[in-house]
Amino acid sequence: MLLWLIFFTSGWTLIDGSEVEQDFMWHLRKIPRVVSERTFYLSSPTFEADARMVVNRVCGIECQKELPAPGLSELEDSLSYETVFENGTRTLTRVKVQGLVLEPTQNSTPKEAAVRRKRQVYGTDSRFSILDKRFLTNFPFNTAVKLSTGCSGILISPNHVLTAAHCVHDGKDYVKGSKKLRVGLLKMRKKGGGKKRRVSKRSKREAEASDQREGTKVSLQERPTRRGRRVAEGKPSFQWTRVKNTYIPKGWTRGAGGDAALDYDYALLELKRAHKKKYMELGVSPAIKKMPGGMIHFSGFDNDRADQLVYRFCSVSDESSDLLYQYCDAESGSTGSGIYLRLKEPDKKHWKRKIIAVYSGHQWVDVHGVQKDYNVAVRITPLKYAQICLWIHGNDANCAYG
């Protein structure tokens, strides 16, 4: 009942004991065009980096707000992108940006945050493990996926997963295991699920003897097999799918010529086989004041909860033009999760969830000369929306509004 109230009343605010609907809506806006210009072949990567975030310098909140807006050529360079194919080959595609209207830099004063001593989970752990299959197999929880490199991601089309760039690339090279990257989709196993294999009488006797020596009684039907593991009815498991192509913005893959930029910590994975699950659409990230209660939501596979899907929500503490700073409780493994909002659609009575950011992870940032830690998310700006849309469709024909 608690989860039901959380998810289906997120567009309401309690005032003097009564529920008053707030005017929080998705507002479609014209999106700049990101157009592919030229594509070059690059040498194959070595796939030797460790699967962890490597950001040498994180600009503080006030730094993010006071820096001059990047010029058009700088934006085009950062939005140019690498594509890594399943066979390990790699290309670089240069892009042009058209129809861009530069918005003024946000200059609000950042809020002072209390000193935090514990990384990622702050004080009381407010995360929810989603265990009921009625939630796990239905929207929005069914959109969360697990990467073979240990991160999370979210389904954004029948063939595509959005995640954090550092989950597959450390800023210099692609991480170990990303050459044969796989995506795990949650599914529920039926009773007796798992592949069977014929077992000889001798093997059965040896197994029973082994159990007796260890003082256990395990039936052959419950024993793991080489080809698969039987899972009790109702237990979640993963259906793994290979990744066909990986897209990463050059703003992250600067290599030896510069540092990875946290603003570009996002990547798109194209699956080798389409899935049949309901996915979540992209949306342009609104300002905090346009979010119901300033709240964001996301689900991922935190490493400290053994393949459980973990949901959390919290209010955003501060923002810059490209980042959201917040204290949503999260452990490693949840990075790459899609952060979403539930807003009302214009001229319609129903509400809709859209992804507005990618959870990047825990960072220390400089706030007026003082080091403070936040859990940081990368916002889907109009330009990033246009770029990801280009990756999905191969052209910008379906990316005019978002």
Characterization of the model:
This is Inactive serine protease 35. GO terms for molecular function: serine-type endopeptidase activity. By secondary structure, this protein is mostly beta strands. The chain has a single domain, classed as Trypsin-like serine proteases (Thrombin, subunit H, Beta Barrel). It is 12% helix and 32% strand. It contains six helices and 19 strands. The strands form three sheets. Strands 6, 13, 14, 15, 16, 17, 18 and 19 form an eight-stranded mixed β-sheet that branches. Strands 7-8-9-12-11-10 form a six-stranded antiparallel β-barrel. Strands 1-2 form a two-stranded antiparallel ribbon. A hairpin with a 6-residue loop joins β17 and β18. The protein starts with a helix and ends in a 9-residue tail after the last helix. The N terminus is likely disordered.
SS field, number of helical segments: 6
Overall structural class, as computed from helix and strand content, comes to mainly beta
CATH class bucket: Mainly Beta
Shape verdict = globular
Essential attributes:
single chain, 402 residues, mainly beta, Thrombin, subunit H, eight-stranded mixed sheet, 6 helices, 19 strands, 12% helix, 32% strand, globular, disordered N terminus, secreted, serine-type endopeptidase activity, signal, Trypsin_dom, glycoprotein
